[in-house]
Amino acid sequence: MGRTVILTDDLGRGERLVRNLGGGPGLVVHDLYGDAEPPTGATLVISDVSALTSDAVLRLRRALAVARDRATPFLALIHGNLGRGEIQATALGATRSLPASAANTLLANTISALSKAGSELGDGGDLRRCAEEARSAFAAIFRGDTAPPAALVDAGTTIVNRAIRETKVRDWLNIVAGFDDVTHRHCLTVAGLAAAFAQSLGLNEADAHHLTKGALLHDIGKARIPLAILNKPAPLTPNERIEMDRHPAIGHAMLIDGSYDAGTLAAVRSHHEYLDGSGYPDGLRTSEIPDLVRLITICDIFAALIETRPYKAPKSIREAYAILTAMGPKLDGDLVRAFRQVAVASEQPAQRMTA
Which stretches of the chain are assigned E, i.e. beta strand? Predict the structure, then answer.
């Protein structure tokens, strides 16, 4: 099984967990509140923390940074409220989560599977895991009853940026294209394109994070659009289109009291605005539309064009980019030209656009 590190706030409980799992030198318990440094070289990390207070989360983040590298699976055991615990686990970057009360056999089987996955990552395995983590984070973000916790959004953003930084954007798009929920798939596609765009533009880490976060959240207002409209397997009627077009304003209203910065709020409200004033919901023009929004709008349109929908076939990368350029004064021409590099990187090798 390799070396499994258990991060706990109760040594007695951690040692009981070791005994329940059969013991052995491969299971190491680390006291989050002790003085020792967390062990390194883990093939699996398990957190078993009863109360995720702000102090416990800070200690856990520090311990994870030492004990876990990007390819190491992380299993979070949840005490108390399962829904809240799953959100916290996702924000911490957990690969899987289980109730702490899970039967020993289930827990042991999960640990065995994660340990095996940790030893076999590479050749696309880590990218697929990143995509699954991002989907889990986005599913928690896209609940619709309240503004998503900033920590959860930041965690999802970090996952996407890391994946794009360490692999090819076309591979990210291929994996995300297999996800079944249309809105989740679209937002993760736009976020991946935005992360690649940030990289191609040479943005610093903070600006890249800001751009990808806006892309991840841009359609959050769709969480409150009726599913019958959101998932309709045919073009929308005029009345349904009016309802759908409310999603930018709805998303802005959801986030405005959630301590989100002005740039993110603008990305959510204004990603359907065009430079010539023909967009919605506010009919903004030229300088009224921030650069961050202009970047996300390009990624959003491109993603919608290359995605499969129940009522339309996907456009090829070449066709989608040609449509972007044909939109002329609606979009920022300089940014559309800069986006060509991302479009080329999105193409399958056999169908590569001429650079």
Answer: 4-8, 27-31, 44-48, 74-78, 96-99
Lateral strand order in the sheet of 27-31: 27-31, 4-8, 44-48, 74-78, 96-99
Closest CA to 151 of 69, 76, 84, 208: 84
At residue 40, does pLDDT exceed 80?
Answer: yes
Number of other residues whose CB lies within 10 A of the CB of residue 222: 22
Q: Could you tell me the two tokens for 72?
A: 């190491």
Distance CA 282, CA 153 (A): 26
Residue reference for tokens 């736009």: 190
- What span, in angstroms and rounded, lies between the C-alpha atoms of 234 and 237? 9
| Cα 207 from Cα 205, distance rounded (Å) | 6
The predicted structure's pLDDT at residue 42: 84
> pLDDT digit string (tens) for 91-105?
888 887 888 876 555
Neighbours of 119 (CB within 10 A): 14
DSSP one-letter code for 75 = E
Strands of 108-189, DSSP E: none
Nearest by Cα to 267 from 214, 191, 192: 214
Contacts of 145 (CB under 8 A, 6+ apart): none
Q: What residues are paired with 31 via a beta bridge?
A: 8
232 SS3 class: coil
* Contacting residues for 135 by C-beta, under 8 A, at least 6 apart: 176, 179, 184, 188
Instruction: State the DSSP code for 353.
Output: P
